[in-house]
Write a structure and sequence with these properties.
The chain is α+β, with helices and mostly antiparallel strands. The protein has 5 helices and 8 strands. Helix 4 links the parallel strand 5 and strand 6. The longest helix has 18 residues. It is globular and about 55 Å long. The termini are far apart. The mean pLDDT is about 95.
């Protein structure tokens, strides 16, 4: 896919450029980011360069990950990174996973929720996605709060889903469908009826 940009009231979501390397490097010095994401630790300037100049463009080119830098519209400061990954947008799957991190100085202002809402609208309207998934290590309350505010329904805890620092970690998962936002879907959804089981005895 050709890289694109999205805008919200306060934010610009755009592909990273080489000029963003120092800001990405500085943001990823916060230990909370490698604690809950695959970001290397320690995070070097070369790690930032590889991410910005190689991995992100390759993801767009190969349709494996669509990664946006999130920036404030008024002063162009880095808010964080937001991606659609695990892309399976061809029929019949038409789904992807959302991932994000937020710079420490920009947390608590609703920026990540604002950016994620625009990203999921783009995924449903323009990419034809019919299901988005959110996955985070169990205990990542900040990520869960963002996903819940965007509209993701919490599905539960999956054992040992995330390999991290030589261990396997439990994960929280959630899903978002176009119908959750009042949007149409090309493929009808037939949910399980959730009938109560008869009493045993």
């Amino acid at each position: 896919m050709e890289p694109t940009s999205l805008t919200t009231e306060r934010l610009l979501l755009r592909p990273f450029t080489p000029d963003d390397v120092p800001a990405v490097h500085a943001a990823c010095q916060d230990p909370a980011i490698p604690r809950y994401t695959p970001v290397p630790s320690p995070y070097t300037l070369e790690d930032a360069r590889l991410f910005v100049e190689e991995r992100c463009p390759a993801g767009w080119r190969d349709d494996t990950a669509y990664t946006f830098g999130v920036f404030t519209r008024d002063d162009g400061r880095l808010v964080g990174s937001m991606s659609l990954i695990q892309l399976r947008l061809a029929a019949p799957e038409r789904q992807a996973e959302i991932g994000y991190w937020t710079a420490k100085e920009r947390r608590g202002r609703g920026y990540t929720v604002e950016a994620a809402r625009e990203l999921v609208r783009w995924a449903f309207r323009d990419l034809g996605a019919e299901r988005l998934e959110w996955i985070a290590e169990a205990g990542n309350e900040g990520s869960r709060a963002v996903a819940s505010k965007v509209g993701f329904r919490m599905d539960g805890t999956v054992r040992a889903l995330i390999p991290h620092n030589g261990t396997r970690r439990d994960a929280w998962t959630g899903t978002l469908l176009p119908s959750d936002l009042g949007l149409p879907s090309a493929t009808p959804y037939l949910p399980y009826p959730h009938r109560e089981r008869p009493a045993e005895g």
